[in-house]
């Protein structure tokens, strides 16, 4: 569904809301309540479109554009990011308005040319450069690795609006324009999940970008995000969330993640949970095959400790655990300290492999796994308690 709303008299939000969509960026980020993203249309002497949308929505969006523009052309396109949720309709827009001039970051220019494969001269802009469209002037701000090398934001001083593309985004599909219409807790939970799944893997770059952004001292009344709902009331709270996540503030909790074949590794997972409680550490627990992976990733990114369990499938870890290990390697949450556990039958080969793969990715992993041979015995329960105690003393 496409929804067009007025942000100001001459500024429109073109919002795509798909509550049925369960995957965002294919299977990378299973979405809880659907997906939403926005482009913005600004009427001035020169008409500007900020970002586009996936091509499957073009015909619906075109109807709205024709209605608003009444025969006028779009003169300028600011493409703040090359991924298809923001750029895929560029060619369609170009075909409608062949004189359109398209601005993007330098990195965006090279990546857009590789994406669209036709002869079009994108105009690169850098942080601090401005673009006048009549009564309005945009100032550009590159945000490399927040979350791709090409990302940038645009500030419209005359209206005190920051167009932030993926920055400060969330996948909220509530049918409201602004954050003031939903509970703060819900807004921040969705924004955190978006950050941990989309931006966190490049977290090293974020503090520097946020510092530069703060030094701009822009007067911002509205953040017109590229995803979810716009920010007005809770901008300071959102900045604080970003600052905490960028600096990887941990919350002294543990996450237990496992997969099991016959229930033995599951039993061990709950023994670990109990042992952690005995030592004053709260934990959440996920069986991978029954969990939404983006929620697990969100929890792991901010937890202090991860206990990862697998059974033995023909001397290999269970495939869904291998998938999770690869996601951990991509997440790079290296301040989350890890221990491996599981039940085995014939051999212990998978556990050393999990440790090796995570150490290769520069995680701190407790050197030996906590194992049970087939079913957990009462001495295994005692061993788990001693393991947690040693883990706490050495890694926590
Ligand atoms: Fe990198 Fe909203 O996409």
Q: Mind sketching the topology for me?
A:
Layout: E1 2-8, E2 11-18, E3 23-24, E4 29-30, E5 35-42, E6 48-50, H1 58-69, E7 76-78, H2 84-87, H3 90-96, E8 101-105, H4 106-116, E9 123-125, E10 130-132, E11 137-142, E12 152-156, E13 161-165, H5 184-199, H6 206-215, E14 222-225, H7 235-246, E15 254-258, H8 264-278, E16 283-287, H9 293-302, E17 305-309, E18 312-313, E19 316-317, H10 319-331, E20 337-344, H11 349-360, E21 370-373, H12 378-395
Parallel strand pairs: 6-7, 7-8, 8-9, 13-14, 15-16, 15-17, 17-20, 20-21
Antiparallel strand pairs: 1-2, 2-5, 3-4, 5-6, 10-11, 11-12, 12-13, 18-19
Helix pairs in contact: 5-7, 5-9, 8-12
MU-OXO-diiron binds next to helix 2.
Structural notes for this entry:
The protein has about 400 residues and is an alpha/beta fold. Helices cover about 35% and strands about 25% of the residues. The chain has helices at about 60-70, 85, 90-95, 105-115, 185-200, 205-215, 235-245, 265-280, 295-300, 320-330, 350-360, 380-395, and strands at about 1-10, 10-20, 25, 30, 35-40, 50, 75-80, 100-105, 125, 130, 135-140, 150-155, 160-165, 220-225, 255-260, 285, 305-310, 310-315, 315, 335-345, 370-375. Helix 5 (about 185-200) packs across helix 9 (about 295-300) and helix 8 (about 265-280) packs across helix 12 (about 380-395).
């Amino acid at each position: 569904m496409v929804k067009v709303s007025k942000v100001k008299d001459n500024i429109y939000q073109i919002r795509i809301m798909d509550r049925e969509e369960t995957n965002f960026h294919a299977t990378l980020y299973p979405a809880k309540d659907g997906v939403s993203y926005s482009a913005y249309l600004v009427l001035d002497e020169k008409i500007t479109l900020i970002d586009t949308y996936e091509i499957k929505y073009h015909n619906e969006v075109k109807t709205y554009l024709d209605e608003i523009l009444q025969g006028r052309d779009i003169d300028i396109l600011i493409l703040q990011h090359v991924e298809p949720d923001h750029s895929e309709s560029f060619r369609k827009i170009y075909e409608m308005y062949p004189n359109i001039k398209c601005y993007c970051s330098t990195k965006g220019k090279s990546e857009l040319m590789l994406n669209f494969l036709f002869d079009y001269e994108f105009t690169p802009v850098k942080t601090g450069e401005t673009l006048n469209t009549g009564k309005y002037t945009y100032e550009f701000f590159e945000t490399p690795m927040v979350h791709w090398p090409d990302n940038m934001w645009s500030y419209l001083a005359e209206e005190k609006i920051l167009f932030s593309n993926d920055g400060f985004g969330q996948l909220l599909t509530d049918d409201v324009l602004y954050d003031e219409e939903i509970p703060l807790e819900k807004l921040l939970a969705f924004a955190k999940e978006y950050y941990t799944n989309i931006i966190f893997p490049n977290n090293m770059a974020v503090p520097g970008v946020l510092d530069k952004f703060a030094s701009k001292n822009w007067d911002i009344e509205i953040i017109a995000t590229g995803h979810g709902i716009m920010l007005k009331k809770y901008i300071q709270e959102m900045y604080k969330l970003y600052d905490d996540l960028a600096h990887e503030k941990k919350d002294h909790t543990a996450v237990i993640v496992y997969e099991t074949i016959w229930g033995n590794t599951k039993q061990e997972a709950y023994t670990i949970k109990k042992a952690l409680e005995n030592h004053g550490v709260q934990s959440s627990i996920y069986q991978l095959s029954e969990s939404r992976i983006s929620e697990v990733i969100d929890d792991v990114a901010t937890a202090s400790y991860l206990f990862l369990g697998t059974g033995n499938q023909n001397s290999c870890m269970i495939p869904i655990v291998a998938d999770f290990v690869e996601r951990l390697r991509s997440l790079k949450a290296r301040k989350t300290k890890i221990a491996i556990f599981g039940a085995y039958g014939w051999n212990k080969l998978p556990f050393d492999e999990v440790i090796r793969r995570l150490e290769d990715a520069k995680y701190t992993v407790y050197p030996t796994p906590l194992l049970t041979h087939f079913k957990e015995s009462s001495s295994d329960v005692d061993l788990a308690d001693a393991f947690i105690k040693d883990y706490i003393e050495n890694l926590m």
